[in-house]
Amino acid sequence: MAENTAQGGIISKEDKPLTVTQQTISEAMLPKGVKDFLPIKAAKIEQLKQTLHEVFHRWAFRPIIPPSLEFLHVLEKGLGEGLREKTFRFDDRQDGKLVAFSPDITPQVARIVATRMQHAPLPQRLCYSGQVLRHAEQQAGKDREIFQAGVELIGLAGPEADAEMIAMAVECLQALGAEEFTIDIGQVEFFRGVMADLPLSPEQARQVQCAIGRKDNSGLVELLQGLNLDDRDRQAILALPRLFGGREVLERAEKAVVNDRSRQALDNLRQVLEVLEVYGVEKHITFDLGELRGVDYHTGITFQGFLSGLGQAVCSGGRYDNLTARYGLPAPATGFAFNLLHLLSAFDKQLEKSSAKYADVLIFQAGSNKQPAQRAAQALRQQGYSVARDIIERQLEDSIQYAHKMNYRFVMVVGGPDDTVRLIRLADGMEQQIPYRSLLTEGFCL
Amino acid sequence: MSDFITFALPKGRIMQDSMELFGKIGITCPEMAGDSRKLVFENRESKFRFMAVRATDVPTYVEYGCADIGVVGKDTLLEQGKDLYEPLDLKFGYCRLVVAEPKALLEEEDPSSWSNIRVATKYPNVTERYFAARGVQVELIKLYGSIELAPLVGLAERIVDLVSTGATLRDNDMVEVETIAEITSRLVVNRASLKTKHQRISRIIADLEEVIGNERTISG
Predict the structure, then answer these.
(1) Which of A311, A366, A382, B207 is most deeply packed, by most CB within 10 A?
(2) Is any Cβ of chain A less than 8 angstroms from the Cβ of B198?
(3) Does B192 touch chain A (CB under 8 A)?
(4) How does pLDDT run across B108-124, given as a tens digit for each residue?
């Protein structure tokens, strides 16, 4: 929202004929839930992506690029019901088959590993960034195009692999400059252990799951009243909505359940925590055993990252041991992805500094011979500076004004090859005279 | 900024009831007693902030994280289906969401034989789900107030609305046909807040739960 006003402000300053602007605004130019990102925002998104990929690279993950279109029937093998409903689909005029824009990259990576890379050695450490499309609630101001950057670790079952994902997520957030944040860990097997073998119809089980997901204790009590459950099971279910917080949750959970499956899930969480302590990230960890929001292909540890003061999770992930098997290659796997637009709203201000000064020099030359300016531009680019030629015929002061608006650091006024060059620093208007020939020598510094 | 706990409370009666309840667990806001036109009140010492908003906007403020905690009627939660935690039934603001129709109409028909009906309501989503589960097709007319007027002027034969004492229905010669849900005020919590401020928020939930539990045993 802040973005619209900021960019709207820039447009209205530059577009003089107001009537034209009004005409274009009266009709929406884009479908709901997608956005144009203008240079300033786009630079920030690129920077987020780059920071994340540097961390991915440090953990030895290799990039992979899945396509944006898939056959619906192939994609659907890897999608739970929730995402299936949110998939954009249409028919392919070339062969009449239904195709879809992927709503999630993980099933695509699972497909690629299980088919194209079936003979590659395991484990595979893969990373990606890309956009996915999902239908979203209308008028809730929600994005339908989601920018993701994530990793998948395929072929490893142990708790160390889960800990690797969580430690990486922490490292990513630290690399982005986050100070206060939480990685909240859940374990779907704990819940499944409590729910297994209960005399509930699928509909009743669904309602119980919903109430637990909302942490709605009173609703849960009401639901269970009508059901024939023994006291131990009832107590275990009722404990779920309150099993969140620091590591003490694991002890409380130990007391609340007796079934083996849930206890194994707790053991697994403890083992993961032990590794996280080695990495020294445990202070960022919370637990929530009533968290059932994972995408439904998850089979063990799940986690989400939350920044203090931001209403939505910035990353989410977890273990999915059955997904690649749906494409023919059974392999344990785990992974996570960041939502770049949520990160953008959290780090908008911090990214401001680095993305604001987007170019170094604008080169101005009056007169008809532009060759000295062109040579200077080339020389500076070879030194690694970002340089543009003004090209347009206008007064120097107009060029300076333009350079200000576009956030250049310097305007350079070039005369003949034997003259000196005026270098104007835009931040404070300071001027420097430099011999033209020195620009062309190696090792020249602005 | 972020070390505050922010509450979104619906203006009016529920806000008073909420503050009275919060007072019992030591959450107070002396500033609220003064200028009543303000929309945001703070207790800087104990780091609580309170926003007065429209009841139907409470879930939105909490979902986006502008408020960590909110108080809102279960009717609004059912209607909006937002992604929120609702850990506590606060037990006040009791009323029922019912289907009602003119007395004269009920005398000459059996509601169990409805196959398609027209219903006026402030709660189109709840109404649609309820009748879909009953196998009845509904034509919905969304209104924003004075729902009881609809049958009187022939806009819709039936209504779905909140009833507390039933006086408004009686005054307009209408009767309840079915109860869709019992409604009370709920404490709702933003998902990220529950994780990032879990110590303070768990404490608030536990303290409130104790006070509400005690009251119930005393009064009932």
Answers:
(1) A311
(2) yes
(3) yes
(4) 988 888 988 999 999 99
